Amino acid sequence: MPLTVRKIEATKPGPKPITLIDGSGLQLVISPKGSRGWRLRYTRPNGKRNMMSLGSYPEVTLAQAREKRTDARRLLAQGIDPVEQRQQEKREQQYSQESTFRVLAHEWHATMAPRWKVTSKRAKESLRALENYIFPYVGDKAIEGIKPLEWLELLKRIEQAGKFEQRRKVHSFCRDIYRFAIITGRASTNPLSELSSALIPHKQKSFPHVSQEELPELVNAIESYHNPLVRIGLTLLLMTALRPGEMRQARWEEIDFQDATWSLPSDRVKMGRAHRVPLPTQALAELRKLHMMTGQYGLLFPGRNDPAKPLSDAAFGMALKRMGFEGRHVPHGTRHVVATGLKEMGYPGEWIEMQLSHKLPGIQGVYTHAEHMAPEQRPAMMQAWANWLESFKV
């Protein structure tokens, strides 16, 4: 006879397990301690006998247990073992949880962070961008389940806010996360690879910078600036074409007065490779003045409140504003000025690109590693440039 709820409730635990039969393999086993569990005995597609648990009573009611029995027998009719099917579903669920975009993004970030420069903001910037623009929308979705249209809508949302540079970065980060997922076997395609054609092209504007005709004005404004630390920093930017961040974080151990070179370690250079900068005589003179002021510290440009930390990243920019160059010239724009000036003086593009610590385009960037540090090459070029700058002083 099929089981009834009344019979189940009336059956009390005994000294040995009690088995109540409902039929078609469904049983309720009552242990001596009083627990009641549903079991289904069945024959596997390979002919062997097996038993599977269907949950505990009363959490799983008699009606629900019968539904589970029907589902299992339906699978068996298709030649599918219900236990193996359950295990497969459990694996897929676990795989799905481990393959959400958020999980993969954090794995990618943990893999890439050690490769990025210690002083770079890229590690924090990438995670912050994902948390702001991506995770709230698709972070908990399986990476394979996110449609290209969803990605397009997310990127368009950033685009419509006028944040084109942020959109470019987010697009790049997410595309790289998909590449990581493909390499680790958790994605088969990269929907972000083909989205560029559906987005509004955005050409990054160059940093504001003075023209070559305005260069004498800039040189003399810097020369007369009241703060000697900032004055020397801005002067050295013009003589070396270093990035402002590379300048501010520079340490005295990088300066070789004897060899007239400034050697930046790979962890402080944007391109991630060591960079040697030739120092003209005028730059060496400025560095000697600076050494008298900050030589007792590790940093060339120590902060005002904490000499263990570099000068504020706003110091150079604020000085240029006070000189009257607001909207006309920013510290990073100095690199444009130097590059243009050297090009107009007729120096080879390879020398200029190396001075700027740029990677050469195309195949040259892969195979060409020449530093052009022979005396007649970059050292002579930067000495000529420093002489040119000195000629503007009044």
TrEMBL record:
Alphabetized Pfam families for the sequence: Arm-DNA-bind_3, Phage_int_M, Phage_integrase
Superkingdom per UniProt: Bacteria
Start and end residues of each Tyr recombinase domain: 205-382
UniProt keywords, alphabetically: DNA integration, DNA recombination, DNA-binding
CDD domains on file: INT_P4_C (cd00801)
GO molecular function, one term: DNA binding
SUPFAM superfamilies: DNA breaking-rejoining enzymes (SSF56349)
Keyword DNA-binding: yes
UniProt similarity note: Belongs to the 'phage' integrase family.
Record-given protein name: Integrase arm-type DNA-binding domain-containing protein
